[in-house]
Hints:
By secondary structure, the protein is α+β, with helices and mostly antiparallel strands. The chain has helices at residues 10-22, 41-46, 72-83, 91-121, 127-147, 160-169, 183-193, 196-208, 216-223, and strands at residues 2-6, 26-30, 54-57, 67-70. It has 9 helices and 4 strands. The chain is globular and about 55 Å long.
Amino acid sequence: MIELHYWPTPNGHKITLFLEEAALPYEIKPVNISTGEQFEPGFLRISPNNRMPAIVDTDPADGGAPISVFESGAILVYLAEKTGKFLSAEPRPRYDTLQWLFWQMGGLGPMAGQNHHFSVYAPEKIDYAIKRYVNETNRLYGVLNKRLADREFISGEYSIADMACYPWIVPHERQGQNLDDFPHLKRWFYAIKARPATTLAYDRGKDVSVQPTVNEESRKILFGQTAASVR
Ligand SMILES: N[C@@H](CCC(=O)N[C@@H](CS)C(=O)NCC(=O)O)C(=O)O
């Protein structure tokens, strides 16, 4: 059984997308990041960066003690290796998928995240910061659009690279992006949206919470963190 420590945000959705596609049994352990549950000692033991998602596999392949994994990219690789799904074992297609997974982890996710922060959440509107991250998101959408021009999914077949990217394209309007400017990306986006597992994954999220994660109270918890927060 996989225990999924989760809150319904883009990084959380990546993992429910995988688990629903693979039809792997899992149990959601909500981590309400609006109220500070990401700082609880029990959670920090499996996710020392005080971020969700994280998983605990209580039935690992080696039959040993439970294995915990944090960082959504590492979790996707772990689950792909456990199930033999959505990541090829052959070196060429495997690294094709992994390079795009890392592209999402180091580029699309952090840049779109800063875009949300400065465009939507920051108490002052700083033109330079907004332009910087809206433009960078735009560039990354352009890169993905080009990649998808001659293939159905990011690395040919549906893979963990697609599962990592899709939840970060869902809030495209809030990121100041128009999918009509990116026709191949738009075709890919609606193809993933139409998958039954995608609907199931997002429905699981709604079962956990439909409240906005960022509100007046949670701003203090989410946006005022320093090293002292995890001491
Ligand atoms: N690189 C991490 C990022 C995870 C992340 O930023 N999670 C956010 C929600 S999307 C979180 O837990 N935030 C809690 C906080 O900011 O205190 C991953 O991909 O797992």
